[in-house]
Amino acid sequence: MATKGEVKKEVFESEEDLAVSLAKYTAQLSDKFCKERGAFTVVLSGGSLINSLRKLVEPPYIDSIEWSKWHVFWLDERVVPKDHEDSNYKLAYDGLLSKVPILPGNVYAINDALSAEAAAEDYETRLRHLVKSNVLEISAASGFPKFDLQLLGMGPDGHVASLFPGHPLLKENKKWVTFIKDSPKPPPERITFTFPVINSSAYIALVVTGAAEAGAVQNALGNSQNSEKLPVAMVSPEGELAWFLDAAAASKL
Ligand SMILES: O=C1O[C@H](COP(=O)(O)O)[C@@H](O)[C@H](O)[C@H]1O
After folding, report:
1. 227 pLDDT exceeds 80?
2. Could you report the per-residue pLDDT of 3-57, keeping only the tens digit for each?
3. Among 184, 237, 182, 244, which residue's Cα sits nearest to residue 209?
4. GO terms for CC (predicted)?
5. Residue 170: phi, psi to the nearest 5?
6. CA angle at residue 91 from 97 to 93, to 5 degrees?
7. Are 148 and 41 in contact (CB under 8 A)?
8. Which of 76, 97, 101, 201 has a CB 3.0–4.6 Å from the CB of 150, allowing a cystine?
9. Is the CB of 52 under 6 A from ligand 1?
């Protein structure tokens, strides 16, 4: 198990090297949790993260991972149909889920027939059912659900999930899943995990690539003059936080 609050940071020369290491990290945690409790609860972001997971669908991982024990969730989702170009589900389906034998019943996508508010409520209700059926654990420390691994991306403005700089949702401390109708990044309507859920995770991998992200990485990890704490700097899980950075993203550290 990770040491409580441990923060690891690795800088890779290239995004290709990062992708190799991220697949190994994910596969090792999958192995650990499948052995320990017969299931692995994994939370995906949208955006560039899915491309960085591409090595998982290649040997050796495609054959060695116990895909049938995976339960897949979304950190945030855009309120669009599941076959829409903006859908984080579609991105993950095309890049990962359609290529591996994860059980369709273990893939927890947004109900895209609902409004943003209702979809967030529905997602939280489904998470509560999964706690009752012991698929999901609850953190003894926080009382929020404790996922095994959350795979986080980050935008150039330092947002994670659909939690944007300066937005009141950063302070949400009761709901597990909430909604936003004024996302500064399109599309405007989204649902998102809240910080208490993000920070109750056993493991978080924060995966950041590209020079456009370097300022926000500096805000979270370096000697930034900027006193405003960006959302990415609020990521602080109960368990381990592992930063996966490429050289460009780490260039201001
Ligand atoms: O809108 C979103 O953006 C972030 C970051 O995306 P990236 O393409 O800059 O990596 C992503 O993590 C989030 O899930 C998504 O909805």
Report:
1. no
2. 668 899 999 999 999 999 999 999 999 999 999 999 999 999 999 999 999 999 9
3. 244
4. cytoplasm
5. -60, -25
6. 20
7. yes
8. 201
9. no
- Residue 223 CB-half CA count within 13 A: 0
Comparison of pLDDT for 225 and 72, the residue scoring more: 72
Are 176 and 122 within 8 A, CB to CB? Answer: no
The response to whether residue 192 sits with its C-beta less than 6 Å from ligand 1 reads no
Pocket test for ligand 1, best of 54, 75, 154, 213 (most atoms within 8 A of CB): 154
State whether the beta carbon of 246 lies less than 6 angstroms from ligand 1.
no
Query: Looking at the predicted structure, is the pLDDT value of residue 107 above 90?
Result: yes
Which ligand 1 atom sits closest to the C-alpha of 78?
A: 16
In angstroms, what CA-CA distances link 89 with 24, 150, 169, 229? 23, 15, 22, 29
Structure tokens at 126: 């489904």
Residue nearest to atom 8 of ligand 1 (CA): 47
Contact 174, 67 (CB under 8 A): no
Q: Is 107 exposed, middle or buried (0-12, 13-18, 19+ CB in 10 A)?
A: middle
| Percent of the residues in the chain that have a pLDDT greater than 90, as a whole number | 94
Question: How far is Cα 37 from Cα 67, in angstroms, rounded to an integer?
Answer: 14
Element (H or E) spanning 25, and its range?
helix 15-37
